[in-house]
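User: Let's play a game. I give you a shape written as tokens, and you guess the letters that built it. Ready? Here's round one.
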């Protein structure tokens, strides 16, 4: 299970249309082998708290109550635990004038997990993300070696990622080589749609997992004929939350949001927009028929991420992808220029070192 977001992302399945491979769980992060005890609060909710088996050092665990208040209890293990004990608190009602929002993202971990203190959650998340970032760096170096321009496409379900990809691949056919990694919890429906365009694609089924990670993508790269100097599209699992935390080794991150989703999505789900290099407002041709104001949507995106470029696109309208295709080719050319400059600088340093050695 992914401790960062709580998903069961281990044991993902890769499929290239001809064979399937189950990935071994990636378990180099620490696990707590724990026992628990139950706390019942005044509002009737009950939850358990896990404890490690070090009976010398004190530890803490957090209580979050129905009114959103959070506090820690430190326990030493100099006393035996029974099967359970109750901690009843008088926070079971809301006084007039008090906030009605229970904010579980206010602590240092910006999340809540029963049985884990904020400090422990931060520790675990840091460990997991550090390992993912190391694997992402390997993916990035591998892609750079082949001059591959990689895009990580993120959005909620139904924003139009796959349709955008299909139409993009049709437009690029004969002009630019491409390959695709598809991420979904189940089915290879999207990968089959991609392969129908003549583009090689690998499907990753994450099972209970809600996002791709660098470990999965690294294995998918083994199965793909990467196009030298071409483009790799990585379509992430449809989810506006968890994929934002996981670097895959991409060159750029592209977030999609459709006009059918409402213009407040960037404010509700800021992380997925905050990390984007480009935001595509999709299904722009439907704007006159829905309640979303594209201008307000673009303004809200800019409030979260002023540096991101924002484009309106439509996979169905004539020239609806023109701005997106222009950005893609310009960004790819800039990437190749940077790689060439880096290679020349490295070669120059080697020549200088060789000259000095004489």
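Assistant: Ready! My guess for every position:
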């Amino acid at each position: 299970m992914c401790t960062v977001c709580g998903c069961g992302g281990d044991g993902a399945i890769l499929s290239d249309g001809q064979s399937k491979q189950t990935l071994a769980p990636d378990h180099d992060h620490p696990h707590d082998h724990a026992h628990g005890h139950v706390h019942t609060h005044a509002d009737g909710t009950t939850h358990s708290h896990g404890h490690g088996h070090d009976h010398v050092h004190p530890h803490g665990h957090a209580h979050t109550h129905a009114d959103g208040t959070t506090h820690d209890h430190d326990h030493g293990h100099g006393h035996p635990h029974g099967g359970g004990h109750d901690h009843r608190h008088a926070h079971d009602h809301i006084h007039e004038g008090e906030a009605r929002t229970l904010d579980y993202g206010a602590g240092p971990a910006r999340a809540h997990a029963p049985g884990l203190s904020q400090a422990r959650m931060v520790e675990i998340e840091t460990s997991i993300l550090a390992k993912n970032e190391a694997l992402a760096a390997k993916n990035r170096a591998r892609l750079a070696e082949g001059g591959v321009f990689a895009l990580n496409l993120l959005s909620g379900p139904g924003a139009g990622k796959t349709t955008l990809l299909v139409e993009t691949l049709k437009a690029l056919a004969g002009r630019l080589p491409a390959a695709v990694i598809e991420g979904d919890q189940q089915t290879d429906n999207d990968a089959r749609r991609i392969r129908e365009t003549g583009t090689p694609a690998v499907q990753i089924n994450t099972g209970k997992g809600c996002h791709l990670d660098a470990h999965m993508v690294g294995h998918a790269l083994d199965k793909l004929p990467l196009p030298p100097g071409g483009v790799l599209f990585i379509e992430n699992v449809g989810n506006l939350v968890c994929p934002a935390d996981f670097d895959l080794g991409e060159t750029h991150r592209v977030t999609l949001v459709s006009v059918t989703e409402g213009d407040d999505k960037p404010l509700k789900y800021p992380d997925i927009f905050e990390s984007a290099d480009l935001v595509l407002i999709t299904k722009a041709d439907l704007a006159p028929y829905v309640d979303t104001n594209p201008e307000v949507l673009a303004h809200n995106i800019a409030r979260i991420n002023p540096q991101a470029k924002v484009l309106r696109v439509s996979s169905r309208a004539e020239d609806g992808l023109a701005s997106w295709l222009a950005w893609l080719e310009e960004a790819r050319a800039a990437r190749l220029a940077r790689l060439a400059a880096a290679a020349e600088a490295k070669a120059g340093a080697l020549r200088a070192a060789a000259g000095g050695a004489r």
